[in-house]
Amino acid sequence: MIDERDMLIIDMLRENARTPHTEIAARLGVGESTIRNRVRALEEEGVIKQYTVVTDPAKLGYNSVALVGIDVEPSYLLDVALHLSELSEVKFVATSAGDHMIMTEVWLTDGSALRTFIVDKIKKLDGVQSVSPTVIMDNWKVRSGYMLP
């Protein structure tokens, strides 16, 4: 059972996955071994699934970041989602029950590359009915650590 202290540990690690156990322990007023044991238990229980790095796409040469909603014929949903997951330009893929059946985040060098990517790599997939890109202008909050089941 996850308690309030576990949630605080998770929040600190989501803010910076490299936070030393000693620092977390000091902030929570407990011993480092307590934190080490709790983190290990959270990993073993599958609460903590991975540690990751958050990068700035622009500093990596990706000046066009977009959220792309994709609607497909229902029988093609899984095939399209899996295909998109294999493309290096696609950084996130999720199926949804919202405005679009599939939501992705794509990183490309510029608007022209985004247009080409949509036309040549998404719209040509079997079952794709519509593609709705939304270009990200500024990112106000980036917090890693959310993974859907």
Explain what the structure shows.
The mean pLDDT is 92. α2 (21-28) packs across α3 (32-44). The chain is an alpha+beta fold and 149 residues long. It is elongated and about 55 Å long. It has helices spanning 4-15, 21-28, 32-44, 77-85, 111-122; strands at 64-72, 90-95, 102-108, 128-135. The chain has a four-stranded antiparallel β-sheet. β2 and β3 (102-108) form a beta hairpin. The longest helix is centred in the N-terminal third of the chain and has 13 residues, at 32-44. It has two domains: 4-44, Arc Repressor Mutant, subunit A; 58-135, Lrp/AsnC effector binding domain/regulation of amino acid metabolism (RAM) domain (Alpha-Beta Plaits), CATH 3.30.70.
| Nearest-integer average pLDDT | 92
Strand order of the largest sheet: 2-3-1-4
Ranges with pLDDT <50 over ≥5 residues?
none
Total strand segments: 4
CATH homologous superfamily title of the largest domain: Lrp/AsnC effector binding domain/regulation of amino acid metabolism (RAM) domain
Helix share bin: 25-40%
Q: Structural class from helices and strands?
A: alpha+beta
CATH class annotation of the largest domain: Alpha Beta
| Beta-strand fraction estimate | 15-25%
If you compute it from the alpha carbons, what radius of gyration comes out, rounded to the nearest whole angstrom?
19 Å
C-alpha geometry: elongated
Sequence of secondary-structure elements:
HHHEHEEHE
Q: Give the name of the CATH architecture of the largest domain.
A: 2-Layer Sandwich
**Domain unit count:** 2
Q: Tell me about the largest β-sheet.
A: 4 strands, antiparallel
CATH topology of the largest domain: Alpha-Beta Plaits
